[in-house]
Amino acid sequence: MIRRKKKINLVKDFLEKGRSVSIKDREEALNYLVAFIAMIRPNLPELEKANKKFAEAIRFMHQHPSVLNNLRVAIMAQLINSNLVPMLTESGITVSRGAGRELYARLKHKFLPAAQDPNDFLYLLNRIFFKHNDYEWVEQIGRGKWVHFFEQIGLSFSGNEPAIIKQSVLSLQILSARVTHLGWENEISQHIPQQWQPPNYPFAVQQHLVYQIKEMVLRHNKHPEAVRELVKELMAVLEQCAGLVQQIRNETADKGTSLSQTFILFQIEQKLNRMYLLLDIADADEKINLSRFANLFITVVRNENRKNSIREFLSQTTNYLAYQIAEHKGKKGNKYITASPFEYFQMIWSAMWGGLIVCFVAVFKNLLTLLHLAPFWSGFVYSVNYSLGFVAIEETKSTLATKQPAFTASAVASSLDARKSDEPPNLYNLAVTVSKVSRSQIASFIGNLIIVFPGTWLLAWLYDWVFGHSLVQGEEAVQLLQDQHPWQSLSLLYACNTGFFLFLSGIIAGYVQNKINYGRIGKRLTEHPILRLSLSQNRLQRISDYVNRNGGSLAGNISLGFFLGFAGIAGKIFGIPFDIRHITISAANISLGAYGVGWDHINYRYLANVFMGVLGIGFLNFLVSFSLAFFVAVRSRGIRLKDYPGFVRILWKYFYKYPLDFVRPRNRLKRTEL
């Protein structure tokens, strides 16, 4: 029987033998660091133990000063004898000219990783943090504890390490040139206020200052005080650059944004953050912002573990574009949240008008089935019918219950957005907001349904009175009832499909509105050479204003109409169980089916089950649409729900104390503390 040789930990081996790490032996120093990290690294199922193992390693360091000294020497051996420029200028920073090229590069390197130079510091880092999930426990330990760790080691960069200073200055120069280049892109320079135009353009001024620092440090070896004064001046200019980036982002709420602009701003922000750290090193004052250094360390470890992750890249670069889409939806969502009894009954009244329009949509849809068109054209005319109905609801300012969740979810997520306030979100007020959303949704359902059931019945009776026969009758009428049954059909599954389409149409509405704002479509319409000749200035201005206000809503309503119109046709074409169930349309179909069957032939228990199926359809329409929209809104804002573990408890206590607040408003809402 072959016995495995017990693996020796190099840290403990050096301690037992009284050996010291040599700063000239980089390989030995690297092995020492690998062994030390192995003492901290938790097993895959035990990531929560990372903090415990890290604390044990810190205590071990303090108990044995020689370990602390060896660790300091091992780290400096890697920094002094390695090429730091790729890490400082590329790791954790997007360097491709476009999102497409970066995506292609990551996809290519997933199959065949890029070759690395052994002298590159990133090569050494990959040797130390070689497991694909190392970034998880590194992040779990947290920045504060890593700062304390680097403080204990005594990490500093003074003039005694000229190699590090020179590489930092070179990296600073590279990043500065890239920031300037990005700053001159049209998507950025066209949005800069007049006071920052050349020669005061901060993105250009910072490059000139970096060049002066490079000349002082690398060529003239000027006194550190002169360098530090220049560094302070450069810091102020970089703050101006960061301020301009934020200003452009703030304006996108009204002006919109594009994926290209988002990508460029994202790159500039990354490079500016790295330049702050490099300036800390370049001034050689033996003081370094360890908080920034810890951020760099955590970022680089994550990037090296996830450098070929397509999901990571898409998440980083598209979140802000998604944020703008969610913001447009969030603003509209506020009109769907009622606070007072007056607003509550106003919502019911608005939903009643929406229900009336749905009655006609449902009747016309069933009339269109009599045309017996080819599948594509059937789907097309159904889609146009739905689209016209949804547009009519929008134009008359009435309400369709299922359109609310995609917008109210963004409004709820907005109240958790820490970027909008320096104060942490008030979770009690958030619970109140959730109760308002709940009762507003119930009000719109009530308004829709109390009109749809009798209204569609009345239209069916009028059709019978005029033409002498029911619109649907016999097996067709029975099938309309059967299609809404909760367990004798796939209605609840199809309701989830509808929820997804409601969410997707909301995304389309936000995206189109964002493009209209960013592309200044309204202004371009008023300046269109042909339209200016064929239309009066007042009419053209009204068209422009209408497009600016309602372009996104039109796109969302039309897309939803086509999603719903073609869903059933797609299921038939591909021979799969795929269709939609929409609460108000299903309610209208129940009225048509019940009228066609006749009250004398209806099993009332069966009808009650079908009615319960409609309520289930409405619940799933809401749940799926709201959940997806809320997930996107939360992710796009960088909100982590696990940071608010107490919210569910607060929400439950509020519900337990004021359950009726989730159904209807009180005349006087007393917000007592829970």
From TrEMBL:
Localization terms from the record: Membrane
TM regions (residue ranges): 344-364, 376-393, 445-463, 492-512, 554-574, 610-634
Keywords recorded for this protein, A-Z: Membrane, Transmembrane, Transmembrane helix
Pfam families on file: SpecificRecomb
Cellular component GO terms held in the UniProt record: membrane
Entry membrane topology: Multi-pass membrane protein
Domain of life the protein comes from: Bacteria
Primary location group: membrane
Cited InterPro entries: Aquaporin-like (IPR023271), Site-sp_rcmbase (IPR011385)
Protein name: Recombinase
Source species of the chain: Niastella populi
